[in-house]
Every structure is written in C-alpha cells, then in structure tokens.
Design a protein that fits this description.
Number of strands: 4
Distance between the termini: 94 Å
Largest sheet: 4 strands, antiparallel
Order of helices and strands: HEEEE
Radius of gyration: 26 Å
Length: 131
C-alpha cells in the first residue's frame, strides 16, 4: 500500500495565487473608482458653494457679479473650497475649477459660468441665475 502525502500540488497553489491576485487587482481598481467619485463629489460641493455664495451673497448685495472670485469677495463660503482636491486654487493653472465672467463693464458682470472638471463624469457646470 501507498501512503498518501499531505500537502498541495503545484497546480493547486498556482490556482490559489491567481485567484488571490485577481481579488487584489479588483479591490484596488474599485478603490481607485470610489476615490475618484469622492473627489468628484467634493468638486460639485465646492461649485455649489461658490454658486450660492455668488447668487445669495454677492449678487443680492451688489446687483452684479464680480470679474474674479476669491475669498475676499465671496465671504459667505468656506475659503478652503477654492482649493480643488489636488490642492490647486481656483484661477491657477491646472485647477479643476474655473470661473468665467461674461458681459462685463467696469468690473461689473451680468453673467458667469462656474465649471468643475470631473474624473468620472462630464464637467459640472453652473450658470448665473439672474440675467
């Protein structure tokens, strides 16, 4: 009679290693997607804060929109929201946020467009409420 050897065959080990490797890869791909969606949500929150600060704060008080926005003229919102998730401030090269004023005369604008470049969706855009 033969004695049975205990242990795993090479084929069994290879299959287990492949399965574990696949699980690890899937985990990290999902984690990257979730992280990107979280950054997109942060960008949308910041654009919404700028929009409501422009509409309810600045425009209501002044009757026009500014040529540039910053923490100096949008005092009703958290200044940290001017910095995108990659650490770049609104107006700097590479920022995922942009403010484009329109129909401006003597520093007073009638329209604007706020935009956030998102990773997992189309750009998030908010335009002025008043015309």
């Amino acid at each position: 009679m033969r004695k049975s050897k205990s242990g795993f065959t090479v084929l069994e080990l290879v299959i287990v290693i492949l399965f574990v490797s696949l699980a690890v890869v899937l985990f990290f791909v999902q984690k990257m997607n979730i992280d990107a969606m979280s950054r997109d949500d942060q960008r949308k929150t910041a654009i919404n804060a700028m929009y409501y600060s422009l509409e309810e704060g600045f425009f209501t008080k002044n009757g026009y929109y500014p040529e540039e926005i910053s923490e100096d003229n949008l005092t009703t919102m958290d200044p940290a929201l001017f910095t995108d998730p990659s650490g770049i401030n609104l107006g700097e090269d590479g920022s995922s946020y942009s403010y484009q004023p329109a129909n401006c005369e003597d520093g007073k604008c009638r329209e604007y467009t706020l935009r956030a470049v998102l990773e997992k969706e189309e750009d998030y855009i908010k335009k002025n409420r008043s015309s």
